[in-house]
Amino acid sequence: MAKKSQINRWKREPKFSTRKMNRCRICGRSGGYLSKFQLCRMCFRELAWEGMIPGVKKASW
Predict the structure, then answer these.
(1) I want to staple 28 with a disulfide (CB 3.0 to 4.6 A). Which of 4, 7, 37, 46 is the partner?
(2) What is the pLDDT of residues 10-35, one digit of tens each?
């Protein structure tokens, strides 16, 4: 989980557009970010396993 100060800084409008940082909408994690879903890999995995993301299911073969 990201620090509250990092999350607050992330929510502010950046001075320059190139300073925008991608962070997970749930936990605020910056690494392993999936831009299509705006989630980190761990939150994506949990939500996909629970069936909360439409069109995504666990692969098995």
Answers:
(1) 7
(2) 777 878 888 778 888 888 888 899 98
